[in-house]
Design goal:
The strands form two sheets. The protein has a five-stranded mixed beta sheet with strand order 3-9-8-5-6, with no helix packed on it. It has a four-stranded mixed beta sheet with strand order 2-1-4-7, with no helix packed on it. The protein is built from eleven helices and nine strands. Helix 6 packs antiparallel against helix 11. The chain folds into two domains: 106 residues, Immunoglobulin-like (Sandwich); 196 residues, Orthogonal Bundle (Cytochrome Bc1 Complex, Chain D, domain 2), CATH 1.10.760.10.
Amino acid sequence: MRRREWLARLALVLVIVGLPVSVLGYQYILRPALATVRIIDIHAAVPEAGGFSPDTIRVAVGETVTLRFAAVDVTHGVAIGPGLGVDLGHIDPGMVKEVTLAFDHSGTFTYYCTTWCSPNHWRMRGVIEVRDTANPGALPTPQRDPVIEALATEGVDIDANVHRGEEDPAGTSMPALATAPSAARGAATLPTLNVPPELQNPDWRRAHTPARALELLAAANAGVDAARLVDAIAALWMSAVSLSELETTGTVYDQNCAACHGQVGGGDGPAATFTAERPAAFSDPAYMFTMRSDVLYAKIRRGGMGTDMPNFGTLFTAEETWALVRYLWALTFAPEAVQ
């Protein structure tokens, strides 16, 4: 009887201990040894516990690698950019998700956490350095951003709270209105107005504030109610935005911006109390009326100096950044389209 009991206990121990050991042995020893591509295991922990480990990976151009991400403490989300379209979604503690990649050119890419995991969540980033083996000493060429360069040439302070051009030194603010601006109402109003040519130019609108546009529109439409003019401005700023783009970009905003700026852009996200400065409220028309699209673009890509806002230029392509800027305007002028 004792012998049977001892054997039963031994079998139980073998199951409890042996099965996990076998699984781990296959995952971390046998499978990498048999794999035809290089497998790189990356552990994700909150930044206070080290963040991603390793946080730097070197890959050769043309080399196929499998990156396996494992969460070791709390739930993390993993995406890789810019321009790769890789989003592994949530990874719960003990779970492993993987992606197989091959890079056809040298450069620097970033893997980053997309789930708010700690007050220092934004620090969770790792770098993939893709080197050309034919020229191993060459470093990736830094990417120039013509938008940011143009702002520097113009002398624009990206971190200023209000942005005006030389033609508007005193500044024009949005008039006090009983209701918030509406792009939907403005779309019906626009055909009845005399719209100056520059306001119809998307490039002009990118480099000027809605406040400046309102000043020009009012001068061309004397006697028209201010509320109707503001709605028309909202319609102009939303004219290049599609619902499908808003849906796609909404996911990007939720993953990377909402924790600080709030789900609907109120500047009241769960991390807002941890930042050096209160996050901008994109749903506040009075604030957004003094902002320029090119400045919003630059702040996203470069980050906000002294505000704890990190740079996202290493995560998003230029066009993904512009899509995010258009989403911010939707929070201002068409909130019904993003809720």
